[in-house]
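Question: Send over one sample?
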Amino acid sequence: MTIHDATIGRFFEDFTVGDIYQHPFGRTITEADNVWLTNLTLNTNQNHFNEHFASQNPITDGKIIVNSGLTVAMVLGLSVFDMSQNAISNLAFTDINFRHPVYVGDTIYAESVCTEARRSKSRDYAGIISMTTRGLNQDGVTVVSWKRSVLIATRDSGIGQRHFPEAADSVSDYS
């Protein structure tokens, strides 16, 4: 019998500059998502929650627009599985560009390209991965993009690994 360790995500050695990672999950944005984050962050722009007010917005064809903070958070979250599951720290997040409005009911996907991979000079247990990430809606239209760098553990560091507890009883107890 083989035991497969509870390890997810990539480590520094797993990245190749130029590789594109199409992140496996998509997420449809609901009205509750948009209103909840807008209220949570005290964003008072009525284009996010007032249909009558938003009906006057020529950029959104009069529709309520999803809070851009939610769009960023969702695309970032979708990218974690592949790009920063084993990150120790975010280092930089730059050049955020909102390229197309996002509306309630849109399904968001994300993909990233690894633009740089180098060993850390000050932390021998990690490397620095730089990437460009973009969010796409269900029609394949890019809605947001940015550049990001993370400090990510090397596989031999042991960081983020072997966290699953050893069972107090034996495997034969499954029966």
Summary: Strands lie at 20-22, 27-28, 87-98, 107-119, 126-136, 142-153. The longest strand covers residues 107-119.
